[in-house]
UniProtKB/TrEMBL annotation:
The keyword Transmembrane does not apply. GO terms for biological process: isoprenoid biosynthetic process. GO terms for molecular function: metal ion binding; prenyltransferase activity. Transmembrane segments: none annotated. This is Polyprenyl synthetase. The keyword Metal-binding applies. CDD domains: Trans_IPPS_HT. PROSITE patterns: POLYPRENYL_SYNTHASE_1. InterPro entries: Isoprenoid_synthase_dom_sf, Polyprenyl_synt, Polyprenyl_synt_CS. Belongs to the FPP/GGPP synthase family. Its cofactor is Mg(2+). It comes from Streptomyces antibioticus. Keywords: Isoprene biosynthesis, Magnesium, Metal-binding, Transferase.
């Protein structure tokens, strides 16, 4: 199975590069403009810089639930989900003021370096680069070789996914500025809207549509699965941000603490401490100058108070529920593909970065 997934990744990376090469030669912009092709180049650079390509894998494996024969429009669906991901990364880095992404400068910081004396220009071009990636993610579906009805249905899926993601970004910001601690329902809703619906549900729907299936027939089951896996994955991300090994994750721990994010880990930590320990956590929360030593102290408090164990327990519970949800597909789906979706939640629990 791992070899098959690695094959999806290798094939898609070549496809993505070829897509941008073709787009660059046909890109419709005035000849005098240098900004327009530069914007496209930054979208290309970030898109090709890597990532797990798990959404691409989901598209292909969803189609395999129906058939193992070649499927028209499947590559276009894969391109669309990764272009939508690029859009999200560009805007995420702008919102979070993040200098790095995938081992290189974020699009926002690339523009800041390009226009050090024009911050509004840098900001505006970053927004437009994200918008361009979003438009391309829809255009690639409208230009697909899939039948017209399938193209329209896939475009509708991606439009809804993008809308849900915007709502997720809004409630994510709302969560972090609301004085009251977020409830579990709030944390799950942020995870669902901001991540699960475009990273899991939409690729599932696109793969099924390309394979000739009508995903609306099984919409509740797909939504339940995507939501559970999305929560599991977000729990793991938040866990690694505080309790992960920097040498393995490749990024510093405590980012959510410094940014003042009420993540799963931070919320669990705040609910578990009192007195001097709580005062230390609250003093670090939202302090961009918070030192590595303070983050380490917060981490030790979390370990001592069982926060890490609680997060792992929650991950496993959601992974088990998601795996059981996928197992229920076996009577009407191809067993080999169902196995992938049964195992996927557990990979989220086990990953170290």
């Amino acid at each position: 199975m791992r070899e098959r997934l690695a094959g999806h990744e290798r094939r898609f990376n070549a496809l993505f590069e070829a897509y941008f090469d073709t787009l660059r030669s046909t890109f419709d912009a005035p000849e005098f403009s240098t900004f327009a092709p530069e914007c496209l180049d930054l979208v290309r650079e970030l898109s090709l810089r890597g990532g797990k390509r798990i959404r691409v894998v989901l598209v292909h494996e969803a189609a395999r639930l129906v058939t193992d024969e070649p499927v028209a429009g499947l590559d276009d669906a894969a391109l669309s989900v990764e272009l939508l991901q690029t859009h999200g990364l560009i805007h995420d880095d702008l919102i979070d003021d993040s200098p790095r992404r995938r081992g290189g400068p974020s699009t926002y910081y690339a523009y800041r370096d390009r226009f050090p004396e024009r911050p509004r220009t840098a900001l505006g071009l970053t927004v437009l680069a994200g918008d361009l990636a979003l438009a391309l993610s829809l255009r690639v579906l409208l230009d697909s070789e899939a039948p017209l009805g399938v193209r329209q249905a896939m475009a509708e899926v991606q439009t809804r996914a993008a809308t849900d993601t915007f709502v997720g970004q809004i409630i994510d910001l709302e969560r972090d500025v609301t004085p009251e601690a977020p409830t579990e329902d709030v944390l799950h809703a942020v995870s669902d809207y901001k991540s699960a619906r475009y990273s899991l549900l939409a690729p599932l729907q696109l793969g099924l549509l390309a394979a000739g299936e009508q995903p609306d027939r099984h919409a509740p089951a797909l939504r339940r699965y995507a939501r559970l896996v999305g929560i599991c994955g977000q729990l793991r991300d938040d866990y690694l941000d505080l309790f992960g090994d920097e040498a393995v994750t490749g990024k510093p721990t405590g980012t959510d603490i410094r940014d003042g994010k009420r993540s799963y880990a931070v919320s669990a930590l705040l609910s578990a401490v009192t007195g001097a320990e709580r005062a230390l956590v609250e003093s670090a929360l939202g302090d961009p100058a918070c030192t590595a030593e303070t983050v380490a102290a917060v981490r030790e408090i979390g370990l001592a108070r069982g926060v890490a164990d609680r997060l792992v327990s929650d991950m496993r519970r959601h992974a088990e529920q998601a795996s059981e949800e996928a197992a229920a597909w076996r009577p009407r789906r191809r067993a080999e593909a169902v196995e992938f979706f049964e195992r996927l939640p557990w990979w989220s629990v086990e990953r170290a970065h």
